[in-house]
Structure formats: structure tokens, C-alpha cells
Design a protein that fits this description.
Mean pLDDT: 96
Order of helices and strands: HEHEEHEEHEHHHEHEEHH
CATH topology of the largest domain: L-fuculose-1-phosphate Aldolase
Oligomer: single chain
Shape: elongated
Helix content: 25-40%
Low-confidence stretches: none
Strand order of the largest sheet: 2-5-4-3-1-6-9-8-7
Distance between the termini: 58 Å
Radius of gyration: 19 Å
Structural class: alpha+beta
Number of helices: 10
Number of domains: 2
């Protein structure tokens, strides 16, 4: 059997976590990531019949029963994952209608998955129903996205359009926009349900005064999605309060639609 530390899903995960930490998006033990894995690929590195522990979930998602995920651990620092993947990450399989997570590898110090894993599972289910290519849920704390939630309305359309106006690539990368939730207590099923509902119409959901959730087909795509939104938010915050002499207009946004073959979310352009 191949060495699991050389598995692409371990290498890609630790690299992504290190990159997120380096960007300043995941201070201390902030943020969490989960990736749905191909069972056949996992079986090249693990005996998937061997269950190390059974960890109860606080939410059951029958649609994902039997699915395997690599997920960050609760209380873990992203910066440490590359040095000790087995302590900071875990590979789990949902069982009993999604009510239990079977630990197949990792969490060697007795830990378990992030407290927001149930919220991830809810979003995974919604995103997978929209696209069979979906694999990743990524949560982090980008500084400028968070800052915007203090000075901007939390109306999803207004929030998105003002970011679309900051640089050309924003509409190209996320024409489906960003949905914004008001402040809610994190780590609860309630915020997970609200996030999953918001995921039905967008691939990114902002938690006001907290951070962002993003979904995608792989870690690079999901990271790039959030990175682009954060760049737009940074430009917005750097220009906020200054006289705006020129901007990307609605007509310019329609030019972007035509030029790049994308379509802004229905009804979100005047």
C-alpha cells in the first residue's frame, strides 16, 4: 500500500492550508476546510475497512452517507498541518445515514473534526446537488471581506455589485455573486442551515463580522474564488471614503458579460 503522506489529497490539503495561513486568512486556529475524496483513490493508501473511532455528528445528512472526507481538526492551527498532517487532519467516512463519522486516519492526538464540520456537510450536500463536480468547502477569515461587513450594507446584491465594480475579474470569476448573512453564532447547526440555504444560489457566503464560506470542484478553484472576492473587498476598503472619480459602470459590467461569456446573477444588474 502506498504511503498516505504522499497521497495527492494530503499534499494538496497541507499546501492549501499553508497558503491560507500565509495570506493571513486563518489566524491561530481560525478557519476550516473539508474535501470530499474519491473512495477508490483513498483505498490506494488506506485500509478503508479499518475504523479507528466513531465520532457522533450533531447533524445527519443521509444524502452523503458513505462519502469520505479529509477535514481539518478542531482547535488546530493551519500552519502546523504540513509538519504533522496526522495530528491536524482526519479522514472520515459518514455512516448510519450521515449521523456518525467513522475515523479512517488522522486526529492522532485524540482530537476530532472542526466544530463546523456539520455546517460543511450541509453545504456539501447543497453544492453537490447543484454540480456533480463539487468537492470542497473552505471557510476562512479574509480581512477585507470582514471589514466590509462593518461599513457596507449586508444586502447580498448591493455587497456583490460593489465588489464587481472594483476590478474586471470579479464578475468573470463569480457571476453568481456572494450571499451575505448577518452575524450569527458560529459552530451551530443554525448557522449551518442558513449557510446551506444561501449556497443554493451562490458559491460564496459571507458571515458578517466573521469570514466567508466558499465551495468548488477542487482546492485551487475554491481558494481562487475567495482570493478574488478578497481582492475586490481590499480595493473597496482602500477607496472607501475617498472621492470616486471613475468606476466600472453597469454598461461596463454588461461588456464584461459579453466579452467573457458570463452572465451576472439574474436581476442583479440595473
Amino acid at each position: 500500500m502506498k504511503s498516505i503522506l504522499e497521497a495527492p489529497f494530503i499534499v494538496d490539503m497541507t499546501r492549501a492550508l499553508d497558503n491560507m495561513y500565509s495570506h493571513g486568512w486563518d489566524e491561530r486556529n481560525g478557519g476550516n476546510v473539508s474535501v470530499m475524496l474519491d473512495p477508490a483513490e483513498v483505498a490506494e493508501y488506506l485500509d478503508t475497512s479499518l475504523v479507528l473511532r466513531r465520532i457522533p455528528m450533531t447533524f445527519a445528512e443521509p444524502a452523503l452517507d458513505g462519502k469520505i472526507f479529509i477535514v481539518t481538526g478542531t482547535g488546530k492551527y493551519f500552519k502546523n498541518a504540513k509538519y504533522d498532517p496526522a495530528a491536524n487532519l482526519g479522514i472520515v467516512r459518514l455512516a448510519e445515514g450521515g449521523a456518525v463519522a467513522e475515523l479512517l486516519w488522522g486526529f492522532t492526538d485524540g482530537g476530532k473534526f472542526t466544530s463546523e464540520f456539520p455546517a460543511h456537510i450541509m453545504s456539501h450536500a447543497v453544492a453537490l446537488a447543484k454540480s456533480p463536480d463539487h468537492r470542497v468547502v473552505m471557510h476562512c477569515h479574509p480581512t477585507n471581506i470582514i471589514a466590509m461587513t462593518f461599513v457596507h450594507s449586508l444586502d447580498s446584491r448591493e455587497f456583490t455589485v460593489d465588489i464587481w465594480r472594483t476590478c474586471t475579474e470579479c464578475l468573470v470569476v463569480f457571476p453568481d455573486g456572494i450571499n451575505v448573512l448577518p452575524w450569527m453564532l458560529c459552530g451551530t447547526n443554525e448557522i449551518g442551515v442558513a449557510t446551506a440555504e444561501a449556497m443554493k444560489t451562490a458559491r460564496m457566503v459571507v458571515w458578517a463580522q466573521h469570514g466567508i464560506y466558499g465551495t468548488g470542484k477542487d482546492l485551487d478553484e475554491t481558494f481562487g474564488l475567495i482570493e478574488t472576492a478578497e481582492k475586490g473587498a481590499e480595493i473597496y476598503m482602500k477607496t472607501f471614503g475617498h472621492p470616486i472619480l471613475q468606476t466600472i459602470t453597469d454598461d461596463n459590467l454588461r461588456e464584461i458579460e459579453a466579452g467573457f461569456g458570463v452572465k451576472a446573477r439574474e436581476g442583479w444588474l440595473d
